[in-house]
Write a structure and sequence with these properties.
By secondary structure, the chain is α/β, with parallel strands linked by helices. About 30% of the residues lie in helices and about 30% in strands. A 6-stranded mixed beta sheet has the order 6-7-8-3-9-10, sandwiched between helices. A 4-stranded antiparallel beta sheet has the order 2-1-4-5, with helices on one face. It has a two-stranded antiparallel sheet with strand order 11-12. One of its GO terms (molecular function) is ATP hydrolysis activity.
């Protein structure tokens, strides 16, 4: 089932075209990972789909409706995005930050309702951040902060969550912690997860569907066995990769690689 897709989407900054006539379908209630070299349009695509930036032509369709014509608050009830570098939460406690996810549901003076408080508590519980509720966000570790930002996205009660490089700046243990949390949200809460990742093996391990981009266009999209191949990685990253099988997941993994020079 597909609720969200782009149709001939072109995105640019000024006269520079970043994404060119890209059509992609996002499988519902699955984890989709977007991979590709720096500057290929991964983050730009996420921002355009979630309407953070406008696109030049084409369309983004969600539930049969053009996202560009959706009411902002209504759209915020359907999709949430965690940017690559979230804005500073200086001076806020964890509970206060997570409560910001209730903004699309607030009316009048913006006071939190009983339902709002219940959802915030649930988001803290699910992400394992309840013990930090009254702690300053700035006092948390990188992995803890990332889980708090995810809790805020969850508090929006959207069925689709976008994350732009959610493991950046985290050590290996915290990267795994965040990715396992997202996998849990997908499996237990049926959330559709769309994220940009740089680590190919993490993409293969956690994604149901992978989109490989190069120069603003799709080179290959499909399951990890179809995308994490020597041929696709050579085309996308200009590397000669040795592909093996992850003994824990039986999914393909990049064992080692060489940069192709002048070939």
């Amino acid at each position: 089932m597909v609720r969200l897709y782009t149709d001939d989407l072109s995105i640019g900054y000024g006269e520079r075209l970043i994404v060119n006539e890209l059509s992609v379908q996002i499988p519902d209630q699955k984890i989709t990972t977007i991979i590709g070299p720096n500057g290929c349009g991964k983050s730009t695509l996420l921002k355009a789909i979630t309407r953070i930036i406008s696109h030049q032509s084409g369309s983004v369709i969600l539930d049969g409706q053009n996202v560009a014509k959706e009411n902002t608050k209504q759209l915020a009830k359907k999709m949430a995005i965690l940017p690559q570098t979230p804005e500073s939460a200086s001076g806020l406690t964890v509970g206060e930050l997570v409560s910001y996810g209730r903004f699309p549901y607030q009316t009048g003076f913006g006071r939190l309702t009983k339902k709002d408080y219940e959802v915030v508590e649930w988001a803290l519980e699910v992400t394992g951040t309840k013990d930090f509720k009254y702690h300053p966000v700035a006092a948390l570790s990188g992995g803890q902060r990332q889980r708090v930002w995810i809790a805020m996205a969850l508090a929006q009660e959207t069925e689709i969550i976008f994350l732009d490089e959610p493991t950046t700046y985290l050590d290996m243990a915290h990267q795994l912690e965040v990715l396992e949390l997202l996998q849990k949200l997908n499996r237990e809460e049926k959330r559709t997860i769309v994220m940009v990742l740089h680590d190919l093996n993490q993409a293969a391990r956690f994604a149901d569907y992978i989109v490989a981009l190069k120069a603003g266009q799709i080179v290959k999209a499909g399951n990890c066995e179809e995308v994490i191949t020597q041929e696709v990685l050579q085309d996308v990253f200009n590397i000669n990769a040795e592909i093996g099988t992850d003994p824990r997941t039986n999914k393909p993994m990049c064992i080692t690689y060489n940069l192709l020079r002048g070939e």
